[in-house]
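Methods, example record. To illustrate the input and output format used throughout this study, we show the complete record for NDNF_C domain-containing protein. The sequence lines were provided to the predictor; the line carrying structure tokens was produced by it.
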Amino acid sequence: MSKSAEANRYRFCAIASRRIPDWAVCGELNEGLESIHCVPQTNNSIVIQNLSKSLFDFGSGKRYFITVFVRDSLRGSTSSYETLEVNLRRPTETSTMMEKKVEMHSSESMFETNLLHDAILETGQLFPRKGSSLDYRFIVSNNTTISNKVLLIVHACEGYVRMSVLRNGNLLKRSEPFSGFRRFLVVNVHSGQLRFQVTNDDSQPKTIHLWASTEADKSPYPKLPEDTSVKVLRRTCSTATLQWLRSADEHAEYCIYMRRENANYLEELVSKASNLCEGGLETSELVGCYAHRGPTIEAMLNNDSIGLIETTIVGLSPAKTYRFDLLATPLQRIHAQSLPYRTVWARTTNSC
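The corresponding predicted structure is encoded as:
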């Protein structure tokens, strides 16, 4: 934050809490709040003092959480830095001062921001703590994009995350929790800096893939149709015929994975969902991969069914339930990535 900014426009505030805060994500204060301290924009540090005695009544190694916000009084917006975890020790018996100070300097080392390069796929790891986050900067130079748009792709491999998009310090978008693959389009981007913050929405560790570019056609991911369902057209005692809509890519490869299920309940089947970011299923068998060239626009206009792909899996056992996963990968693309269609289950007939 530049000290030459409009006087009294910004204020830095630090919130001390006894619990892992949700307000860094949703902007709402909840119980567990210990204190709030604010300083004007000309300060680059905050001293927290005179906290309640209960703050120091715990043993060594107990945790407190400090979150720093910057408030824009002109726009009425608020942005938060990543929450800082602080361990406070019990004061010695000979100590007569119960006052403790936690000084936080606004330094790059505390709030580390990674640089996200144009059209380069990045991989990050979220710590197993709700509210932990990864910050990325994406710089748009003058005249780098004719469309004035930036496409951001986030692929969360396990569990749920939230996504915040900021432009030159102003919050543009804060998503609801989501899992899997999500696209974000930022418009009217002429130049400046975008900040992308991915926040863990639960207490599980996560692998995150991010990609951003002013040229959407360079995306390493396939252009899946809106309807990503896989339909079971026919079943026999030893075969299952599957059908799906092709992707919009000119060249794409489709790989089918199969696993025989022993569970009797759908809930148990669905709960076995695997991490699909790596392009396969650890407990499934690869049936085969099929490369397809997309049809021309004229051909698709003349024949609605030309966008459909159909294949038959053979060698199945009678009266058994099978799980089928379909992954699409664009061909002739740098660092091509796979995306899954919806999982489908099929049960073969009892007798032939």
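Annotations derived from this record:
Residues 297-302 form the longest helix (6 residues).
The longest strand covers residues 150-167.
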